[in-house]
Write a structure and sequence with these properties.
The complex is a heterodimer of chains A (313) and B (300). Chain A has 313 residues and is mainly α. Helices cover 77% and strands 0% of the residues of chain A. In chain A, α5 packs across α11, α7 packs across α8 and α10 packs parallel to α11. In chain B, α2 crosses α11 and α4 runs antiparallel to α5. The longest helix of chain B has 37 residues. Helix content of chain B is 69%, strand content 0%. The two termini of chain B are 17 Å apart. With 300 residues, chain B is mainly α. In chain B, 47% of the residues are buried. The chains are: A mainly alpha (313), B mainly alpha (300). Chains A and B meet through α1, α6, α7, α10 and α11 of A and α5, α6, α9 and α11 of B.
Chain lengths: 313, 300
């Protein structure tokens, strides 16, 4: 088990290096570099060249990459060219805010998705199955940023029942006021994972119910809910893989929902950085989220192996 | 990564009676699609949306760029503008019809490009195996390390907004999943007896690939690609919603949602209307993909 986990971590190293190369290439492909923003157009050529040399922009690409990667690995994510603050601090804060949305949304979406998918499968062919399946396909087809807008239009503008924007007082939610700010964005974010998870759970459960061991369990006289445990355990590995991916999408994809609700998370940070052309903030955020995504996937792989020994090989 | 465990596949045609191959298989598929009322219905709706946006000047009398300061944010049912007007007094129905042009373009073109590039890479990786497979699949793993929307935002955000960068970003985003599916399908087909028989009877690698492999993997890959169009429409409209996609004053559904956001407190119905088009189109592509999947007996 531990050897499997170590092996998975080993696989992650080349992937993380590849990810850093992609992000570095994007930084270099972006129109204008760090020096262009610092140097006014009327600066004499020699002075401009000096500034470039000081920033290390005159060195060959692979040297620049190595220097940049070294800084990133040590946790020095650079300095924002707009606010002059260290990127790491604001990113950490923003990621915390994003997690405050992503974690409840994941829990809600995964729980509802699993229940709806399993119910649909166990009632295969009935009206209930059709209703749940229709709800699931609607969930995957909805542009969630639009759902956010519609929810704001209903609950904030028309009914004036819930706040439309921001996170209120901030911090770990303890008061009702803080929770009120979470309701709409969390519900909006949970729709996609709910739809995707319920579709996969339904398909998996349907396939497993048809297998011989389920018939054998029933023939043995096992109660329905005991059979359910066996079926769900067999359905879980691929569902867990999907949940890992979805959690990553919630981290990276929350930018749209965060924009709708003006939520001060990593998505909001990226959005701001894009419009200020703040490349250090943007690249560091992308790199961090991608690295988190890789780590989440490894954690899921290890969990999968814990449930299903066949995967360990 | 962990996703490849979820892919299971039935090679099209193998489940049908043994003598029903080639023409008969596609005939069966067509018959099954015709019998499926939902699929026929959504295909008709999609055709209507496509035709409407192509023939936009015939559907509406207004100019999508022509606004009026006196008629801003009028509600649906306003005389002369049955769906109302937007924040600069342009006819909303006209903008929604014309908006279909760019929205559909950004939804279909990247998937088509990704299908061409990713499908080729995947089939080559699956058919060649060994080192070629390793190189292609490991580089895809790197792109897979980005959550899809993040990759699109990274590319658009770094390179700048605009139609060209949107299509580029979405194409790059959709290549890895298509490569992965086509590689896994090809690997499975390659191990089947008829491929081995074709090689044993002296077929060159290229002719086996063309006559026996490609024919059998195209179905599942196409079905998967149609399901991506739905995602692509949502993502491309999302990029424009963030201000990263199509630039104003072009009509585009996501961009309309973005520019109408400020009107949410004045006229919530108008502000939400463009999203209906994104939703309906993506829903139709999803249902069509499900219908095709059932008719072609593909499991992904």
């Amino acid at each position: 088990m531990w050897r499997y986990a170590l092996r998975r971590l080993g696989y992650a190293v080349p992937i993380l290096i590849g990810v850093s190369i992609v992000v570095f290439a994007l930084i270099k492909m972006a129109p204008g570099d760090a020096a262009d923003l610092l140097i006014p157009p009327e600066t004499p050529k020699e002075v401009a060249a000096q500034i470039r040399a000081k920033l290390g922009l005159d060195k060959p690409m692979h040297v620049q990459y190595a220097v940049w990667l070294g800084r990133m690995v040590r946790g020095d994510l650079g300095i924002s060219i707009v606010t002059n603050e260290p990127v790491a601090a604001s990113l950490l804060n923003a990621l915390g805010n994003t997690l405050m949305l992503a974690v409840p949304a994941a829990v809600l979406g995964f729980a509802l998705g699993t229940i709806l998918g399993a119910l649909a499968a166990f009632n295969h062919g009935t009206i209930l199955d059709r209703v749940f399946s229709a709800a699931a396909i609607t969930g995957v087809s909805l542009p969630h940023y639009w759902v956010g807008i519609v929810l704001v239009a209903i609950f904030a503008v028309t009914l004036n029942a819930l706040p439309a924007q921001g996170m209120g007082p901030g911090g770990i939610p303890r008061t009702w006021e803080q929770v009120r700010h979470l309701i709409l964005p969390v519900f909006t974010l949970s729709l996609i994972p709910m739809g995707v998870v319920s579709r996969l759970v339904r398909a998996n459960v349907l396939e497993i119910i048809g297998q011989e061991f389920v018939g054998a369990l029933r023939a043995k006289g096992l109660l329905d809910r005991r059979v359910l445990v066996h079926v769900m355990k067999n359905a879980s590995p691929s569902v867990m893989a999907l949940m890992g991916l979805q959690l990553g999408y919630l981290l990276g994809g929350s930018i749209l929902v965060e924009t709708v609700f003006n939520w001060p998370g990593s998505g909001g940070l990226m959005n701001l950085a894009i419009f200020r052309r703040d490349v250090p903030v943007l690249s560091a955020t992308i790199l961090t989220i991608a690295a988190l995504f890789v780590l989440i996937n490894i954690a899921v792989d290890v969990l999968q192996a814990a449930v299903d020994p066949r995967i360990r090989r | 990564m962990a996703t490849d465990t979820t892919i299971a596949l039935a090679v099209p045609g193998l489940r049908a009676a043994p003598n029903e191959v080639g023409q008969a298989y596609w005939g069966n598929v067509r018959r099954r699609v015709y019998r499926d009322k939902v699929t026929v219905g959504v295909i008709l709706i999609l055709c209507a949306i496509v035709l409407m946006s192509i023939a936009a000047p015939l559907v509406t009398a207004h100019d999508p760029a022509q606004g009026s300061v006196f008629k801003r944010l009028k509600p649906p049912g306003f005389p002369g503008h049955w769906l109302g007007t937007d924040e600069v007094g342009r006819d909303l129905w006209t903008r929604m019809v014309y908006g279909g042009r760019l929205s559909l373009l950004c939804g279909v073109v990247p998937v088509f490009l990704a299908l061409t590039i990713g499908g080729t890479l995947g089939v080559v990786a699956g058919f060649a195996g060994s080192i070629v497979n390793t190189v292609i699949m490991r580089s895809m793993d790197v792109l897979y390390a980005f959550p899809s929307i993040l990759l699109a935002i990274a590319i658009c955000g770094m390179l700048g907004a605009g139609l060209r960068n949107t299509i580029l970003a979405l194409t790059v985003t959709f290549i890895p999943p298509i490569v992965r599916i086509s590689e896994s399908v090809t690997t499975q087909v390659r191990g089947l007896d008829f491929v081995e028989a074709a090689r044993a009877s002296g077929g060159s690698a290229l002719s086996v690939l063309r006559h026996h492999v490609v024919n059998n993997v195209l179905g599942p890959i196409l079905v998967y690609a149609t399901s991506l169009i739905s995602v692509c429409i949502i993502l491309s409209a999302g990029l424009s919603f963030l201000g990263l996609g199509v630039t104003p004053p072009n009509p585009e559904w996501g961009l309309m949602l973005n520019s109408l956001r400020s009107a949410l407190w004045v006229n919530p119905v108008i502000a939400a209307l463009p999203g209906v088009m994104i939703f309906v189109t993506s829903m139709c592509f999803n249902l069509m993909s499900d219908g095709l999947r059932q008719a072609m007996d593909v499991r992904l």
